């Protein structure tokens, strides 16, 4: 594993401290990076001026052996839609993942009142490569399904469906659920149209309750997840994220979305530590852990990870090149 670069501070977008930098493929063919709470300045710090979340950067770097460079920021590096932070209802809006379907980008966000207190979730969409955004005006509950449909990641299956993995919020104490929904606006934005992948006591199938029972989830019992990611890379399904229980990143690779993710080949390329000291594969106060969609099993495999700020330590996202991640099925 090799650290390629810190993604912030970033002068061109007036970013000092920021996190997440969730990578997804945009309608233009560029890679979009959605960041969470972002502050101005020259240092990677929390609490500076010009508080923005979410915001969106664009990059045309596709070779993951090279440092990611940013060419532009949506809305002139402003917040993607206007609202006041720390208002009576909520403190900030945090992104979870974006997906492109045709010329439209969909963005799932959590509306939070402080960390670990998610009030509701929303879907916003853009038809002009991220410059202007429309709220679908549906508030998605953060308490249904055992609280495990709060943070999500989604990917097109190439079969007319979007597949979604979901977990709890920033308490980082929930397992993962699996969903699918038809690839159209009406269904994607309708909570009732999402079909769960559930266990009926004998087998798994679609159209079932995926996990109101707190014991249920598609990963090992007792799994406690933070941020999660789902991407289809070279014909393989790749799941990634922050395993809070193990204080580590993880990457899982499967041939089909409905394969047994509990037994899927699992990698832990970046580990966390509560301390500043570490090694080349250790990031203090780790979280995030998103696989870049241009990763290649037969080339450069890339993960974006974040480091939380504490007592003056950096608040930033970083690009890592990962070695030794293998496909589960032949590369497409």
Structure report:
This protein has 332 residues and is an all-beta fold. The chain has one domain (2-322): Tachylectin-2, Chain A, CATH 2.115.10.20. It contains one helix and 23 strands. β2 and β3 (31-35) form a beta hairpin. 1% of the residues lie in helices and 39% in strands. The longest helix is centred in the middle third of the chain and has 4 residues, at 185-188. The radius of gyration is 18 Å and the shape is globular. The strands form six sheets. A five-stranded antiparallel sheet has the order 10-11-12-13-14, with no helix packed on it. It has a four-stranded antiparallel sheet with strand order 1-23-22-21, with no helix packed on it.
Count the DSSP helices: 1
CATH superfamily: Glycosyl hydrolase domain, family 43
The chain-level mean pLDDT equals 95
Low-pLDDT regions: none
Alpha-carbon Rg, integer: 18 Å
| Strands in their spatial order, largest beta sheet | 10-11-12-13-14
Class, according to the CATH hierarchy?
Mainly Beta
In total, the number of domains comes to: 1
Strand runs, count: 23
CATH topology: Tachylectin-2, Chain A
- What's the shape? globular
Question: Helix/strand-derived class?
Answer: mainly beta
- End-to-end separation in angstroms reads 24 Å
């Amino acid at each position: 594993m090799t650290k390629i670069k810190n993604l912030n501070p970033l002068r061109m977008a007036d970013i000092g401290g920021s996190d997440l930098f969730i990578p997804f493929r945009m309608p233009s063919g560029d890679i979009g990076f959605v960041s969470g709470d972002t502050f101005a300045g020259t240092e990677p710090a929390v609490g500076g001026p010009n508080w923005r979340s979410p915001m969106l950067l664009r990059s045309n770097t596709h070779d993951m052996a090279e440092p990611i460079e940013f060419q532009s920021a949506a809305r002139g590096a402003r917040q993607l839609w206007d609202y006041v932070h720390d208002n009576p209802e909520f403190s900030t809006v945090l992104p979870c993942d974006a997906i492109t379907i045709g010329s439209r980008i969909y963005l799932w966000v959590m509306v939070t009142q402080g960390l670990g207190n998610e009030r509701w979730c929303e879907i916003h969409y853009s038809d002009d490569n991220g410059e202007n955004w429309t709220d679908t005006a549906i508030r998605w509950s953060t308490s249904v399904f055992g609280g495990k449909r709060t943070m999500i990641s989604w990917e097109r299956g190439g079969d007319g469906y979007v597949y979604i993995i979901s977990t709890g919020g920033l308490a980082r104490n929930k397992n993962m659920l699996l969903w699918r929904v038809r690839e159209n606006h009406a269904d994607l934005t309708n909570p009732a149209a999402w079909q769960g992948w559930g266990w009926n006591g004998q087998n798994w199938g679609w159209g079932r309750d995926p996990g109101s029972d707190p014991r249920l989830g598609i990963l090992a019992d007792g799994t406690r997840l933070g941020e999660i990611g789902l991407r289809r890379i070279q014909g393989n399904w790749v799941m990634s994220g922050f395993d809070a229980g193990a204080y580590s990143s993880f990457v899982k690779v499967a041939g089909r979305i409905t394969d047994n993710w509990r037994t899927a080949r699992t990698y832990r390329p970046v580990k966390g530590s509560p301390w500043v000291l570490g090694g080349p594969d250790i990031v203090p106060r780790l979280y995030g852990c998103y696989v870049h969609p241009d990763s290649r099993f037969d080339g450069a495999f890339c993960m974006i990870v974040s480091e939380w700020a504490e007592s003056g330590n950096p608040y930033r996202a970083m690009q890592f090149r990962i070695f030794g991640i293998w496909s589960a099925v032949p590369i497409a």
